[in-house]
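Collaborator request, handled under Task 6.
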Amino acid sequence: MADEEKQEEVQEEEPKKKGGLGKFLIILILVVIIVAAGTYFVVTKFIIKPPPGTPTPSVTIGPTFDLEPFVVNLADTDRKRYLKVVMQLELENDKKVSKKLEKELKDKLPVVRDAIITLLSSKKSSDISTPQGKIKLKKEIIDTLNAKLVSGRVVNVYFTEFVIS
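Structure tokens returned to the collaborator:
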């Protein structure tokens, strides 16, 4: 009986050794992948520099016009929802035009705010909750405002706060 117990113990120990080797290999492979990825990141970001004369991409925006926050009820029918949005309008990047346009926006501020409020309150939360919906909304705001302006045009809209509740 003692021999049988020893044989059972030996048989039970052998599979444990194989499983340990498999786990060790998996961990070793994962460590190698992580080290390789880290090395690639360090080399591409810090060691290899772009050749001189390569233009670095820069984001430049034209003059902006700040608008006070908008809080509107949305057109959802299932429940009452509202939108709070703060935005800035990017104006044409021509100094003469942008100065005239800024003055026109100040003079027509009630008309501008009314047009934006009317547009925003016609939207359902599902229309503007996705990134594509926000992009479409920006285009609609630009088109709506440019139809009302004569001394220049709005080229972009930047949402600095956008909350649907």
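The cover message to the collaborator said: "Residues 2-47 form the longest helix (46 residues). Residues 129 and 150 are 32 Å apart (CA to CA). Please let us know whether this matches your experimental observations."
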